[in-house]
Amino acid sequence: MSTTTLTSQTFAQTVEDNDIVLVDFWAEWCGPCRQFAPVYEQAAEKHPEIVFGKVDTEAEQHLAGWAQITSIPTLMAFKKGHLVFSQPGALPAAALQQVIDAVVDLDVDAAIAAADAAEQKQ
Fold it and tell me: Does the annotation count 33 as an active-site position?
């Protein structure tokens, strides 16, 4: 599966309706973004069970502002509708694979339960 263009109209629904969604915030003029694009595309082909979205920060300035994007490219990962990873910078293929593996292996329900329990103790 190739990447999917996400917009302000499709972003929330995509994150909510899919188990794992990776999002690349990028811009056409950004050299590191162009360098990261083929790495991201290859990962999308390798992992068809994951949604690989792309947000053009120039076309979707409101969405980029909402996501507090201050540097591009920025990669975000969502699992079961929850943001579980966010990092600026172009990742090499091996590092992107590590992120994917970590997100796949993450028990987000247990993490949320642990965070809730810690919050109640305070």
Answer: yes
